TrEMBL record:
Annotated 4Fe-4S Mo/W bis-MGD-type domain residues: 36-93
Matches recorded under PROSITE patterns: 4FE4S_MOW_BIS_MGD
InterPro entries: Asp_de-COase-like_dom_sf (IPR009010), CT_Nitrate-R-NapA-like (IPR041957), MoPterin_dinucl-bd_dom (IPR006657), Mopterin_OxRdtase (IPR006656), Mopterin_OxRdtase_4Fe-4S_dom (IPR006963), Prok_molybdopt-oxidoreductase (IPR050123)
Family according to the record: Belongs to the prokaryotic molybdopterin-containing oxidoreductase family. NasA/NapA/NarB subfamily.
The name this protein goes by in its record: Molybdopterin oxidoreductase family protein
Keywords: 4Fe-4S, Iron, Iron-sulfur, Metal-binding, Molybdenum, Nitrate assimilation, Oxidoreductase
Cofactors: Mo-bis(molybdopterin guanine dinucleotide); [4Fe-4S] cluster
Length: 727
């Protein structure tokens, strides 16, 4: 029997030995603790933020793990990825030394000192020849917030560059923009307990059973016999176990949501107290008058009776209604207005700031929410605005960085950065913890982009990702399990991660890499206090003072662990918050007037509709609960790999398959106007006729996708483009 079975993982949270060293090397574990030594970490995959318990050997090495009982998020549960979270660390594909492209065009091992020297010499020379706008970084929502803040501050205030964005643009820029415009701050209001306290749960463009399985478990714990409504073109795993599936036409969401508002305002099923806390109700009421249910049946594919009944379900007085959305909403050419149409419904029916309610976006990556607040990309670090002089002065004073270094120049968005590379304006890219040569929309275009780049740096755990293989310089990074810091989950809960393994070879934590770059660049003095993640956490926490995300009341990592995670806000004099908190209980928003704003505009046409030549609408998304994005991590797990098809497959309605003479499992070419790929046919009535579904986890998928962007958030619309099939 192994030692960890001696200790039940059902014990109380505080009984754990939570170790928190600055670096790896938990040190010698005291011998009396040897048999039962554990540490806790938030899972490094999705934004649910489950806590895992790592079982350590006497040297402090994690040899196994189990989900943490008693943690308020996951209560002892984990999905397959969480259970297998240690596997990817042991892969032979790990990047163990820096790699530099030689004069023959081959990547070859080098030492850190050459790597750092090449990095600084190249970027400094590009900067001096082409200016501070000629370099950009693309980062992530998957490293701790201390690392993100270090990168963002070093790059902008230390190295003096301007343009930087993250893969969070692909993911939740829409939700962030929608909240910011509607509430005055990027502030998802809900808490996971709302899943358990709702009478009506509407999941729109969200496939919880696959993408957030532990959140689905939270839905299952609801004792109020809730009505669960799924709005999705596909009969997903989630839709099939819901009370009702509204199988709408792709991108029918905005007209549908306006029709619901039409019915609710027409019938006066409103909450006047909540409406008194909003601005724009007269204009909104006038606007939705032209969206009667019958006027939208064509675009939504939903009969009028269904729309009327849904309007009743989401506006019944005394019933708590919560709305939850993910990529089916965010990844759309009109995502921001769609998210705001959900927010508007909650505001007019009073489903906000109370148990079991809320317009709640579910985020994707483990630290997407930390990226939103701290990455110093689209907003100034710790929830500030670049445009606000008082914010820039505050950051300058508190970080001890000269005011003139705190740029007010906004960054280009992800798509604009890539266009600038193609146009020859951006000459160097630094890619950190993301894999855009697989994940970016219309990815075929990136080949041309690569040709135009003078210098491509990729900083990753593995040397052979699609992006890593194209790098001029590859910096080997430690991953989750090999470092410390904080993540923030979808319900604004901070949790900590711990180093429980030593990174292989010469791989270093991203934190340490940024530290070395700061010194090599010659701006290390500006960051003399940025010595380790915990020290940076203290700096960052103090920066949040008086912002909506104020977390000044958090003492340190140990405090976060003791509380079972802490949701923001947590200001100094806040007293006892309990362990679950939601925003806007007082009906006050973060806008200058204190009121929420109702935003709306007419729906627009789908950017690339089907036509006789390209007759199928392609939807892309998550395939299984065992696959993560570009598979650089989950593809390293023997166990996970057994749980999904190795080769690309697409889902097609059986009637369409018959019509086109396609048999199950046949290899078929799928073509769009931009690219092609081969995939096996999976006959599934869950897909509507005229539509196809392809999981995003196969690199070829984004060769097909159409580069449409939401005008407000600049998030790509991955979920709709026209394709044809060739046998
Ligand atoms: N197993 C696994 N889990 C993950 C991830 C992973 O890679 N693998 N990634 C994480 C990340 S970063 C994210 S962002 C989340 C994503 O989580 P989800 O957004 O839940 O996942 P998706 O499959 O991308 O999209 C959700 C649904 O949107 C639907 N959809 C497509 N078009 C429309 C439309 O026009 N309207 C509506 N209403 N629905 C539409 C799709 O059919 C799909 O079922 O998952 C996170 N969790
Ligand atoms: N067609 C289509 N495309 C999509 C989507 C879709 O629904 N459809 N969804 C989009 C969404 S929502 C998202 S979030 C993106 C995700 O797209 P990506 O961010 O490109 O996908 P990942 O595979 O998560 O890439 C993360 C990379 O970081 C590396 N890594 C992991 N941990 C660390 C670390 O600690 N340090 C460093 N330096 N590296 C690390 C991994 O090895 C991996 O190469 O994909 C988007 N692309
Ligand atoms: S649901 Fe998300 S956070 Fe929880 S174990 Fe799975 S991947 Fe990790
Ligand atoms: Mo995402």
């Amino acid at each position: 029997m192994s030692f960890f079975s001696l200790k039940s993982h059902n014990g109380p949270l505080t009984a754990d030995l939570v170790q928190e060293p600055g670096q790896f090397g938990l040190g010698k574990v005291p011998s009396r603790l040897k048999p039962v030594c554990t540490a806790t970490s938030i899972c490094g995959y999705c934004a649910t933020g489950c806590q895992l318990k790592l079982h350590l050997d006497a040297e402090g090495n994690a040899i196994n793990l189990s989900p943490q009982a008693g943690y308020p998020v996951n209560s002892g549960m984990a999905c397959p990825k969480g259970w297998q979270a240690l596997d990817p660390l042991d892969s032979p594909d790990r990047a163990t030394v820096p790699l530099l492209r030689n004069h023959k065009g081959k990547l070859e091992p080098t030492d850190w000192s050459t790597a750092l020297q090449t990095f600084t010499t190249k970027l400094k020379s590009i900067k001096s020849t082409h200016g501070k706008e000629s370099v950009a970084f693309l980062s992530t929502g998957q490293i701790p917030l201390e690392e993100m803040a270090f990168l963002g501050c070093l790059y902008k205030f230390g190295m003096g560059f301007v343009h930087a964005d993250a893969n969070t643009r692909q993911c939740m820029a829409t939700a962030a923009t929608a909240y910011k415009q509607s509430f005055g701050f990027d502030s998802p209001p809900g808490t996971y307990a709302d899943f358990e306290q709702s009478d009506v749960i509407v999941l729109i463009g969200a496939n919880l059973c696959i993408a957030h399985p532990i959140l689905w478990q939270r839905v299952m714990r609801n004792k109020r016999n809730p009505k669960i409504i799924v709005i999705d073109p596909r009969a997903t795993e989630t839709a099939q176990v819901a009370s009702q599936h509204i199988s709408l036409r792709p991108k029918g969401d905005l007209p549908l949501l306006y029709a619901l508002a039409h019915c609710i305002l027409r019938d006066g099923r409103i909450d006047s107290t909540s409406i008194a806390n909003t601005e724009g109700i007269e204009d909104f009421t006038e606007f939705v008058k032209s969206y009667s249910p019958s006027s939208v049946t064509e675009t939504t594919g939903i009969p009028t009776e269904t729309i009327e009944a849904l309007a009743l379900d989401v506006s019944t007085p005394g019933k708590r209604v919560s709305w939850w959305w993910t990529m089916g909403v965010n990844q759309s050419h009109e995502g921001t207005r769609t998210a705001q149409a959900i927010i508007n419904l909650c505001l007019i029916t009073g489903n906000i700031g109370k148990p079991g309610t809320g317009p709640n976006s579910i985020t994707g990556q483990c630290n997407a929410m930390g990226s939103r607040l701290f990455s110093n990309t689209t907003s100034l670090v710790a929830g500030h605005d670049y445009a606000d002089e008082s914010h820039r002065r505050k950051i300058s004073e508190q970080l001890g960085i000269p005011y003139e270094k705190i740029t007010s120049q906004p960054s280009m968005a992800y798509d604009e950065i890539l266009e600038a590379v193609i146009a020859g304006k951006i000459k160097a890219l630094w890619i950190i913890a993301t894999n855009p040569f697989h994940s970016w929309i219309d990815s075929g275009k990136l080949e041309k982009l690569r040709e135009n780049l003078d210098f491509l740096v990729v900083q990753d755990m593995y040397h052979n990702t699609e992006s890593g293989l194209l790098a001029d310089l590859l910096l080997p990074a430690a991953g989750w399990g090999e470092k410390s810091g904080c993540f923030i989950n979808s319900e604004r809960r901070l949790g900590t991660i711990k180093p429980v393994r030593r990174a292989p070879g010469e791989a270093l934590t991203d934190f340490r890499i940024f530290r070395l770059i700061a010194d090599a660049w010659g701006c290390g003095d500006l960051f003399s206090k940025w010595t380790d993640p915990q020290a940076v956490f203290q700096l960052l926490k103090n920066l949040t003072k008086d912002r909506p995300c104020d977390i000044v009341g958090i003492e340190n990592y140990e405090h976060i662990d003791r509380e079972g995670g802490i949701q923001w806000p947590f200001p100094e004099l806040s007293g006892d918050h309990g362990n679950e908190r939601r925003l806007f209980e007082d009906g006050k928003y973060y806008t200058s007037s204190g009121k929420a704003r109702l935003h709306f505009s007419p729906p627009t046409a789908m950017p690339e509709p089907v036509d006789p030549e390209y007759p199928f609408l392609l939807i892309t998304g998550r395939g299984t609960s065992s696959q993560w994005h570009t598979q650089s991590r989950t593809g390293k797990s023997k166990v996970l790999k057994k749980l999904y098809p190795a080769d690309p497959y697409f889902e097609i309605n059986p009637a369409d398959a018959t019509k086109y003479g396609i048999e199950a499992n046949a290899a078929i070419e799928i073509r769009s106007r931009r690219g092609k790929m081969s995939a096996r046919a999976y006959l599934a009535p869950t897909v509507q006729s005229g539509q196809l579904f392809l999981p995003m986890h196969y690199a070829e998928v984004n060769r097909l996708t159409y580069p449409a962007f939401d005008p407000h958030s600049r998030q790509p619309g991955y979920k709709a483009c026209a394709v044809k099939l060739l046998k």
